[in-house]
Amino acid sequence: MARADRDRWLALVLLLAVIGLVYLLLVHPLFTVPLREADARIAELRERDARVRSLLAQRPQIEQRLAELDARGGASGFLAEPTSELATAALIQQLERVVGEASPGNRGCAIVNRAPLSGDPPPGRYRRVTVQVRLRCGNAETLAVLHTLESTRPYLFVDMLSIAAQRYFAIPGSAQPQEGGLDVSFDLHGYLRPAPGVARAD
């Protein structure tokens, strides 16, 4: 009698073990895991939808704030020139002024090349004016130039920045090459003031 009871308990334990193994090998990976992943994805989409709805609800306040800034002269962050040609010339003059202030007499920094970026501007309310720039500067002068360009008005932006270290670099007008320094290339751009009556793109 005791042996029969022991056999029944052993059979029950083996049955439970088989059921657990089937669950781990078949039910869990085929049903439980995908359901959990679907629940997590649904929760993520709901959270994203809530953020988007919140931003859309703030659109009238944002547009009103932009209009107030324009009325107070906030548009001074735009390039003042009315055309791309004049704005490009002003952008180059601004670059030359900043480099001259960072390195008087071009002793530690010089403009190697600056050329307007040709091509049709991307469509939109804000027209961008870009100048491709190449400098040869010392480390401190490079930091000063980049910081000044991006921290003054009108707002200017440095993009496509490439910096290569040089053991020696020549400064135009200097007979002796400077030891150390950087070969710096980047695109410098600003935005023209939007024309009156041009609507914002949705």
* Helix content range: 40-55%
User: Can you tell me the CATH architecture of the largest domain?
Assistant: 2-Layer Sandwich
* DSSP, total strands: 6
Count up the helices. 4
How confident is the prediction overall: mean pLDDT?
Answer: 78
Radius of gyration: 32 Å
| Sheet of most strands | 4 strands, antiparallel
Return the structural class.
alpha+beta
The amount of beta strand, in percent, is: 15-25%
How many domains is the backbone divided into? 2
Shape: elongated
Give start-end ranges of low-pLDDT stretches. Answer: none
Distance between the termini: 84 Å
Strand order of the largest sheet: 1-2-6-3
In the CATH scheme, the class of the largest domain would be: Alpha Beta
> How do the SSEs run, as a string of H and E?
HHHEEHEEEE
CATH topology assignment of the largest domain: Alpha-Beta Plaits
The CATH superfamily of the largest domain is: Ribosomal protein S6/Translation elongation factor EF1B
Please render the helix and strand layout as text.
Blueprint lengths: L1 H56 L1 H13 L12 H19 L6 E8 L11 E10 L1 H13 L5 E9 L2 E2 L8 E2 L2 E10 L11
Antiparallel strand pairs: 1-2, 2-6, 3-6, 4-5
Helix pairs in contact: 3-4
Protein name: General secretion pathway protein GspM
Organism: Thermomonas carbonis
Pfam families: T2SSM_b
